[in-house]
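Handout, section B. The chain below has 221 residues.
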Amino acid sequence: MRYYPIQLDIQGRKCLVVGGGGVGTRKVDTLLSCGARVTVVSPAVTDGLRRLSACGAIRLWERAYTTSDLEGIFLVIGATDDEDLNRRISADAAALNLLCNIADRPEKCNFILPAIVQRGDLVLTVSTSGRSPAMAKKLRHELERQFGEEYAVLLKLMGAIRKRLLAEAHAPEAHKPFFEKIVHSDILTWIRDGRMQEVNRLLAEILGAGWSAEDLLSKED
């Protein structure tokens, strides 16, 4: 395995996307969804990027890239079809020890982006270590069919249960049997089918009286 798997916290971090086309727009959307402070530099940009700029979601510079654009940047993504520019971005980032990804050019990156399936706080990633984006895409589609929105609801519920148990001064180690029983039950099927009375019955059996899935989930909204 060449690449070190990591979940990177970019909340509030300054990130630069060079390239304002469709690929760049998709990269911006993902960065924003993770809380990054995004700047885009490109002579031509999509209408979507202009809308994001107009509402203040991103900073937009409609001009050519310069090395000084990397000042204060935590992570840079090159999303252009100009190979000379991609090499320059990669070299500039390397000189400054920055995280750098060049779209579809793993040899010019110091990290690569996996295919992503997201269900709420559940994030599944698929990587072929840059060998085959087509295979990663195929596997992503398979995972999307296998993991539905019920996983997002269950994870949200589990987080709410854990929060309440910790607030009641339960030792974290004491929680493990509770959570094991919950995840190995039929709770995912019940959530998917909207059978919340079964979910509440299970919580009462495992945790005792006074536990309501609806109440727990409402407090997490």
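Note. Residues 114-146 form a domain with the Double Stranded RNA Binding Domain fold (CATH 3.30.160). Compare this with the example in section A.
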